[in-house]
Fold this protein.
Amino acid sequence: MLTIDKINKLIGVTESFHASYKLMEIVNNKIEREKLFGLFLSEQQDLSFDWFTEYFQAEHSDRKGKKQDFTPDGIIRVANGVLGTTDSNADICAGTGGLTIKRYSENPNASFYCEEFSDRALPFLLFNLSIRNVDAIVCHGDSLTRDFKGIYQLIKAEKFSEIVMLKESPDIESETVIMNPPYSMSWNPEKGWIEQERFKAFEALAPKSKSDYAFLLQGLHQLKEYGVMSIILPHGVLFRGSAEGIIRKKLIEMNLLDAVIGLPAKAFLSTDIPTAVLVIKKNRTTKDILFIDASKEFTKYASQNVLEDKHISKILDTFNGRKQIDKFSKSISFDEISENDFNLNIPRYIDTFEPEKVESLDKIKNELAEIDIKIERSQQELSLMLDELVGTTPEADREIKEFAKFFSKRVNPLKNAKKASRGEQLTLL
């Protein structure tokens, strides 16, 4: 088990905030890099998942400033599972590489392209790819402005990938794109960007306060013909209006949106935000959109909701078979979505309401009888208490007498009403 202390010890630091800088030094030195790989592999041999997700989330992520939420394994498996296997994959906002590693584990011979903004995440990403001997291009910089301060090529070798620096970012399109961008992060697009190829067809730029659709369109721009993309985003992208509504409408009219998969809230380590996986496909042959409401598909562990094997299998089986399951999934026609003003809010299309169970009349009757007995006992106890108070002072006696008269007026009508009601019921029967 690679604990925080164990990872820090292997890297050679005593405090976690030094780890990124130290690791970058090691990654850039082939001898030191391969020595460190050996130490890690002596502790952990399973290369099918990102060893650093929880470590980086706990020690290095910036939830408030950069909206960093590193993807839990269950959501990674859903986002990966809807894509199938391909020979090339792009991961925009790659973090430490969790989504890419899952793609790699299914096809180690594929080529990979990653973009990552964070200086702290980048060394872990390069480490993760090189130790797995991945063929990849890694661009260090801003995916939206396209300003990169470092471009790395990882070249598959005998055991571990070689790492070399490139001067320019190659223009790469991939068969699949997988993304978990920062949710609703602000950005500052220039006015002329609407004329850029990645945005022009959608007639609007994502609002400055929420860059979700900017990331989606950037991923779409890097997708090959007949390619598939899965992107994890907050539910707001399904129904927010203004510029986002314009972009969403164009996506649907251009027949690019294939499925919407709602995920449980509290599935991430550092945020309660409920998310959805949007599946984008180029050159679709049908115009329906599959909606899956998997918001209840989880097992609760402490404060986190976890997607387990049974939940993931249900989601992916439903997606791959485009199954229609009551209260879980439904294919919705373009016309119906158009009638709903291109609002994709999942409850509009999948009714998950469960009627409250109605108790039997016998049970209700027995409960009423028990309540009557309790009321009768309380009345008797109150009468005894009042009797005990009589004779203390003339003033108290007057108050008790008035209260007893008031109490008698309240109790007797209630008794008579109950008798009348029961009599009417017997008459009806």
Notes: The first strand starts at residue 88 and ends at 92. Residues 424-429 have pLDDT under 50 and may be disordered. The radius of gyration is 31 Å. The longest helix spans residues 394-428.
